[in-house]
Amino acid sequence: MRLSTTQIDAINHRDGPALILAVPGSGKTTVIIHRTHKLIRESAIKPERILSITFSKASAIDMKRRFTSEFPKEISNPEFSTIHAFCFRIIRDYSKKRNVSFRLIEDDKEPLNKYRLIKDIYQSLFGSTITEEKMESFLSYYGYAKNMMIKPDKLLKTKKIELDEFREMYRLYEEKKINGNLLDFDDLLTMSYQLLLDNPKALEYYSKKYDYIQLDEGQDTSKIQLELLKLLASPGNNLFIVADDDQSIYGFRGAYPQGLLDFQNIFPEGRLFYMEKNFRSSKNIVNLSNDFIKQNISRYKKNVSTDNPYSKAVQVIRLKSSEEQYGYILKNFRDNPHKKAAVLYRNNLSALGLMNYLEKNNTDFYMRDVKLKFFNHWLTKDIYNFMDLSADICNIEVFEQIFYKMKGYISRKMVNWLKGRHIEKNVFKELLKYPGLSDFYRKQLLELELDFKKIQKMAPAHAIRYIRSNINYDSYIHENSLRFGYTFEQLKEMLYYMELIAAETGNFNHFRKRMSDLRDLMLQSSKNWSNLTLSTVHSAKGLEFDSVYIIDLVDGSFPSASSVEAMENGDSSLYEEERRLFYVGMTRAKKSLDLLCYNTMDGHKASPSGFLSELQTFSK
Questions:
Q1: Which of 19, 37, 39, 257 lies in disulfide reach of 248, CB 3.0 to 4.6 Å?
Q2: pTM higher than the cut 0.85
Q3: 46: phi then psi, degrees, rounded to nearest 5
Q4: Whole-Å CA distances, 96 to 92, 106, 149, 177, 198
């Protein structure tokens, strides 16, 4: 394999700390593999004394495969591992010596798992079942606190957490794990770090076990992970980090790019290597993305270049509506069916309308990120409940689920009175018999009865629109969105996609079946082979495609509304991460990059993403 001069310089580094700043498509994995072989062959380092840490299990497997493929004559291979697998080994060794047994609770198929534990804690505290949204919110903030090495009280001061129960849930979750010798993935990091700090002999054993430690995807490393590797690498500090601070996009999981920016403060003797040549993308894409990312302030200065020729110019496509994106993509893909293409988006929700359109047009696709909660979301269940109540206006169980989400100011006391009557009749007519009911309430109940009779006769899309406006469901979600950890715009977007799917169905049963079919299609698509990939930008990191389409490039979607708001309030860190995310999306493309925006969505005006304005400034 032919290596560039900068790659060779990095590969030749042997002793002491080094940070290799590897831009997209610069061959960072190649550098780690070749440096590993050089240490073994030319420096006579035993393979088992080299530890290479990477971000995911898939990356570790791929790195090992590539090493054995490049150097098939090596009898024994060095170790390629994820940080979690390595930490698990430290804890396992410790538990054997101390005759203590720990149990990992990450498998949701096991009776005892972290999800079950958190559900039980929530039930015991509040007497109700935790929602998927609150579960996800708790785990996200919990993991962030662990990875950033901060206590929950400090987290609550620095982060706006829309989860009032967080502190008490955190305390009980920790308590139950400690008492039961239970560990989750975050505990593997914190416990192994503490074990090494508290046990000098254990630290000495692992420090002497490995002469050289290499870290891939260093920009995705959290603070606790970086501290752990620094501890293991001491006192020789033979720590070789390959990273790109411009591709750090996992801040919500505790990724700590500041650790890279502080590298020379931490290791004054450390060396920096700049791998600035992109072997992947056309000159058009490289030049534009390089100018774009330079607007970030918190970064190492780099000048990305490529020897690849110019190709198709980067296109900014302005369309009338969000739905027009789908036709544009399908036509372009069918014109080049043998090329690998990807449709990338900021949020999984963007895949809904697209996969619905592709399936209708008999086009297969492969989809990453199939954990879309849309089909089981409380918002979707609410719409189903409204439809079910219109079909059976006597169904008090369904009525109880949604009575406070509609106009009419119906109280819990009134519903309990209704349930106590044990009469299966029209719920609105029965409530007219409530003792002391005012004329205002009578009018409201009669209006609601008429509304639900109208809904029963409507096509599904019309019914959803009517529920939102005439039943005042939009008012409910507007008032309560932040309590559920969403913005009103996010919830409206979900309802928009629901209407989009409903528009092609004739009745409520057909609508629910279509929703079910799309859910099955989504799950099946992860097993498909196709030249067309649908993915979030986050999940496309590390991949490359001939053609890339980035969709939904409108304000509030990409960059996110929260990052724009934070920047307006003086905190640019989230916005800079959004810019890095967009940069990652752009640099997945080899030859063709199309950036799509539109003028209207759900009948409302949409403004092009601010990122597009930045790009057009550079392209003039």
A1: 257
A2: yes
A3: -65, 135
A4: 6, 21, 27, 19, 17
